[in-house]
Write a structure and sequence with these properties.
Distance between the termini: 37 Å
Order of helices and strands: HEEHEEH
Length: 101
């Protein structure tokens, strides 16, 4: 169940969100971390706030970095129904577009 959720989240950014996040490689664990692509100006705080308003829970990746954090997002998947992932990522894409300078 978790592997399917993780795989869906890891695949969709390459398709639907390709302009913004780059999934950080990870062999195991939850959540999925995604850095904002180089050269893309995104207000991560605005993305997180917009996502919350859209019913999508994400966190800023910088919250978990000890030094010189790169902008990015942390996407959890432990508590979401697999069937809702694609719609949630579509809403997240809208938030990323709105926060892109």
């Amino acid at each position: 169940m978790y592997a399917e959720r993780r795989d869906r989240i890891r695949a969709l950014p390459r398709r639907d969100l390709a302009r913004w996040p780059r999934v950080v490689p990870s062999a195991a664990g939850s959540p999925v971390c995604a850095r904002i692509a180089d050269g893309v100006a995104v207000d991560v705080g605005e993305v997180v706030a917009g996502a919350a308003r859209a019913g999508v829970a994400v966190e800023p990746l910088g919250r978990y970095c000890a030094a010189a954090p790169r902008p990015g997002l942390v996407l959890g998947y432990g508590a979401i129904d697999t069937a809702r992932i694609e719609a949630g990522l579509a809403r997240l894409a809208g938030c990323l577009a709105a926060a892109t300078g």
